Amino acid sequence: MRAADIDTRVWAQRGMWGSVLLSSGAWGAGALPRGVPDGIWGAPGPALALIGATAAYAGLGLLLWSWWQLGKLLRAGAVMSKRRQWLTLGGWALPLLPAPALFSTDIYSYVAQGALAGRSWNVYEIGPSALGGPLAANVPQVWQDTPAPYGPLSVLVSRVVVFVTGEHHVVAAVVLHRVAALAGLALLAWSVQWLATRSGGDGSGAWWAASLNPLVLAHLVGGAHNEALMLGLMMAGLVACRSGRWVLGVVVLTCAALVKAPAAVALGCAALVAVAGQTGWWRRLGRAAGVLLAAVGTLVLTVALCGLGWGWLDTLRTPTRSYTPMSVTTDIGRLLRWIGTEAGWVTTPDPVTVMRTIGTLAGVCGALYFLARAPRLGAERATALGLLALVVCAPAVQGWYLLWGAVPLATVAWRALADARIKTAVVVLVLMVFPSGRGPTVTDVVGVVLGGLTILLWVAWTSQRARDAGLQPSPRPSYGEAAPLRFP
User: Fold this and answer.
1) Residue 246: enclosing H or E segment and its boundaries?
2) Do the beta carbons of residue 11 and residue 70 sit within 8 Å?
3) Residue 52 near residue 30, CB atoms below 8 Å
4) How far, CA to CA in Å, does 441 sit from each of 51, 167, 236, 372, 444?
């Protein structure tokens, strides 16, 4: 067995233990529900909260460190077998299954929306506050009276979950949502592996950049965000289109867009590639008509089966009601508004609204540009760049939104994502959010310090042991040179 293979196994195991620590710490420092009768995720005392925060940050640090080193080895030429890839993903993701919600409280909005739909109330007209009680109390105040901003397929999944668990078992509902997220992750991982292999590359690197990405583990699994289902369906649809089954691909991609609307970019890119692959205008028109029929038929049938109507089209702008510091256009607008206020200038129309409108138009134009170039770039690359253009210019941006473009990009250009600058950005995005999904507390700050010191001491200890054994703790592989950062 090569030294590189041993190294990848070591870092895979360390990442697993990091995930175990993070999951354990979530019981004291996660996004715990308030006032639920389950009694499993009760409010921790100060001592347990501090222990949980320390364990969570120590585990998160170990997980991030393992991911970083594993990517370094793969970029230099190491290879993981498909069996090792799946074992590593299971070891890093499954420990998070029984943990309380992590890094976000959005999951409680999902549960509330499922309960509303279960009562046959229109989730696109009323917010969680209509429920009252613990279900509504767990939803952040900013979303209390906000209609669901997700597609009908996402709400249907939540409705089924709440139907199975009942409204009064929030813990079970969160865990079952996470099962759905893990199913989406498995579909995503398989699709990435398939696409990367068919693109002539090594699936190990793409697997690392997409499936093992800490943003995926922290937010799609830990936070149980519905991006897991959207991305899983989106990548599976691209697989179907790449393999020539374009009808199935269009159906699956339409379903992905009915989870979250941005997946429509992938649908458009795959459709153009399918049409451009035909010879002659009549064949192209026939294929275009078939794609349109499959997409519209799936859309109408799925919306009818979900029984929620078309109100979701009116709530797509809902996320913009909350300020997100990562939105560049919103930040510029707020800065201009502050300058105008301080200078005594008339700020009508509102600079924030103006900049958000400009950003939205710029993002749409960027997506359309890459959509038009899909036949030349390929569906995966065009989808990645189009979605990244949307995210960069969007009026509301969360860290995990970047996965919309990063996941398909990993199938064709994972080495760019393995550059130290990109990896640093991923680490920063993960550390920007506290495990509780809420604002920082003294316990969080102390937990960061203690958890960080724990990892540093462990690194120093393992390094000393390696030196005593005559080994290098993190040897620089000699089986390949790292490629410079190049974007497609």
Assistant:
1) helix 246-257
2) yes
3) yes
4) 14, 30, 41, 48, 5
**Average pLDDT of the segment spanning 187-208:** 87
Pair 42, 27: CB distance under 8 Å:
no
Compute the distance between CA of residue 349 and CA of residue 16 in angstroms, rounded to an integer.
52
What is the pLDDT averaged over residues 192-218?
89
Phi, psi of 347 (to 5 degrees): -110, 55
Whether 129 and 136 have beta carbons less than 8 Å apart is answered as yes
The answer to whether 171 and 160 are in contact (CB under 8 A) is no
CA nearest to 113, candidates 172, 155, 151, 152 = 155
| CB of 98 closer than 8 Å to CB of 23 | yes
Using alpha carbons, select from 193, 296, 204, 284 the residue that is nearest to residue 239: 193
Which of 329, 337, 315, 325 is CA-nearest to residue 395?
A: 329
* Residue whose C-alpha is closest to residue 383's, from 269, 273, 272, 291: 269
Are 114 and 44 contacting, i.e. CB atoms less than 8 angstroms apart?
A: no
Which positions ≥6 away from 352 have C-beta within 8 Å? Answer: 330, 333, 334, 336, 337
Alpha-carbon Rg for the chain in angstroms: 23
Determine the Cα–Cα distance for residues 239 and 411; give it in Å rounded to an integer.
11
Following DSSP, what letter does each residue of 149-210 receive, concatenated?
-S-HHHHHHHHHHHHHH-TT-HHHHHHHHHHHHHHHHHHHHHHHHHHHHHTTS-HHHHHHHH
Q: Check residue 482 and report its DSSP letter.
A: P
DSSP 325: T
Question: Which residue in 27, 18, 182, 173 sits closest to 99, CA to CA?
Answer: 27
Question: What average pLDDT does the structure give for the chain?
Answer: 87
3-state secondary structure (DSSP) of residue 455 = helix
Q: What is the pLDDT of residues 422-442, one digit of tens each?
A: 999 999 999 988 888 877 788
Residues in CB range of 247: below 8 A, 6 or more apart: 290, 294
What end-to-end distance do the CA atoms of the chain give, in Å?
A: 34
| Averaged pLDDT, 303-318 | 82
Q: From CA 137, how far away is CA 118, in angstroms rounded?
A: 18
What tens digit of pLDDT does each residue of 162-173 get? 999 988 888 899
Tokens for 20? 């175990």
Helices (H) and strands (E) in the chain, counts: 20, 0
Residue 408 is encoded by which pair of tokens? 């398909």
Distance, in Å, from the CA atom of 69 to the CA atom of 2, rounded to the nearest integer, reads 17
